[in-house]
Amino acid sequence: MERLFAAALVSILFASTALAQDGFRSPTGNIHCQFFAIDGDAIIRCDLRQISNRSFPRPRNCDLDWGQAFEISGRATRGAPLCHGDTVQDDRLPVLPYGQAWQSAGLTCLSEQSGVTCRNARGHGFTVARAAQRVF
After folding, report:
1. Does residue 74 belong to any structural domain of this protein?
2. In this structure, are residues 64 and 52 in contact, taking their beta carbons and an 8 Å threshold?
3. Is 100 helix (H, G, I), strand (E, B) or coil?
4. pTM (2 decimals)?
């Protein structure tokens, strides 16, 4: 009974967290970004539905999806492509119009017709678009 209660509580907490999401999607809907606070650090992750170029070389230890998810944290010294088995794509996220910026906890993302660029206060981050992805 306790195990069932704990599972139900986790489901309720997850559902309430999912409803309280913070982030945005590009006007085309190809790029979806969500903000997380984990262990006292701010993180923005962006997932692309489609890319038209060859992605970064897949690491040998990545058995999951690769090349369409990127993140930067407030503490990071470089943006990073992710080996992932999940997604932050969610059509309920608000659209961030071209020319507009999203900001939270020292992270900033700019939506442009050429893609989305996210960076931390140190200037490190990534640029993602259907045609190309770059980390810096």
Report:
1. yes
2. no
3. coil
4. 0.84
Strand order through the sheet with 101-104: 101-104, 107-112, 115-119, 125-128, 133-135
Q: Give tens-digit pLDDT for 74-112.
A: 999 999 999 999 999 999 999 999 999 999 999 999 999
Q: Which DSSP string corresponds to 48-80?
A: ES---S--SPPPTT--SEEEEEEEEESS-SS-E
**Total count of domains within the chain:** 1
Domain span holding position 64: 22-135
Distances (CA, A) of 1 to 5, 7, 9, 45, 68: 6, 10, 12, 37, 41
In a domain, 79, yes or no: yes
What is the tens place of the pLDDT at every residue in 17-76?
444 579 999 999 999 999 999 999 999 999 999 999 998 999 999 999 999 999 999 999
Which amino acid makes up residue 20? A
